[in-house]
C-alpha cells in the first residue's frame, strides 16, 4: 500500500474513529498527533452536535476543526469560532415536524450546537424500555424537553438537523417517500434505524469542501474515513477514502480502501500506512 502526500485527514467519529466503547484508543490518538506533527490538518467530520462531542475528542490539541451536525456547522477548536452554519429552511422544519408528530416516532432536533429529544423517549431509552438506542450515549449527548415538537417549531429558524428513529425497518422504508418529498432539504442516514434531515446542499462533504477551499487544500491531498451513508459525500470528495470493516456495504463500495473495524484501530492503521509510513 502506497504512502500518499496527504495534507488533511477528515474522519467520522461513531463506529469509525471511536471504538465500541465510544473511545479513541491510544493508538488512534497517537496517529492523530503524529499526523498533526507532520503538518497534516486533522478534522473531525461528524453527525454529532458540537456540544455532543466526547470530552476526550474536544480537548485534543491535534484536532483543529470540527464539522458537526452532518455538515451544518464548522468550528475552529483553537479559537472557539463558529466558521460556518447552514440551517434547515423553516418550512422544511415545519413539514418534517408535522409528519413525525402524526406518527409519534422518536424525534430529535439539533439547534445552536446542542441536541434535544422528547422527555418521554429520553426516559424510555435511559430506563432500558427502548434498546435500539445507546443508553449512555443518549444520556450524555441529548437534552430532554417536555414537548420536542413545540420546541422544534419554536426554534425553526435555527435548526441544524432533524433526526427521526423507527422501531422497525418496515417503518423506516414506509416513511422514506414522505421525507424525500420535503423541499429545500437533504435526507441521509447514520444508523439502520434512523433518517436525518439537513439543509439543502448540506452534507459532510460540502462542509469539508468549504474548509478545504478556505485552507487551499486539493482533493488529492485529502484522506477521509467513515462507516455510514452520511459519510459517503466526504468519501467521494477525497483522493484517498477509507471505510472501516464494520461499515455499511454501500459505504465500502464508495471507498477506495477498506481497513479493519472501528474496534480494531482501523482509522489508526489507515493513517499509519497511508500518511505516516516512511
Explain what the structure shows:
- With 278 residues, the protein is of the alpha/beta class.
- It has two domains: 8-85 and 203-276, 3-Layer(aba) Sandwich (Rossmann fold); 90-199, 2-Layer Sandwich (Hypothetical Protein, Haloacid Dehalogenase-like Hydrolase, Chain: A, domain 2).
- 37% of the residues lie in helices and 24% in strands.
- It contains twelve helices and 14 strands.
- The strands form two sheets. It has an eight-stranded mixed β-sheet with strand order 5-4-3-2-1-12-13-14, with helices on both faces. A six-stranded mixed β-sheet has the order 8-7-6-9-11-10.
- Strand 6 and strand 7 (114-118) form a beta hairpin.
- The chain is globular.
- The model has no long low-confidence stretch (mean pLDDT 95).
pLDDT averaged residue by residue:
95
> pLDDT below 50 for ≥5 consecutive residues: which ranges?
none
CATH homolog superfamily of the largest domain = HAD superfamily/HAD-like
Strand order of the largest sheet: 5-4-3-2-1-12-13-14
Gyration radius from CA atoms, angstroms: 18 Å
N- to C-terminal distance? 12 Å
What fraction strand?
Answer: 15-25%
Any idea of the CATH class of the largest domain? Alpha Beta
CATH architecture of the largest domain: 3-Layer(aba) Sandwich
Following the backbone from N to C, one meets helices and strands in this order, namely EHHEHEEEHEEHHEHEHEEHEHEHEH
Please give the count of helices.
12
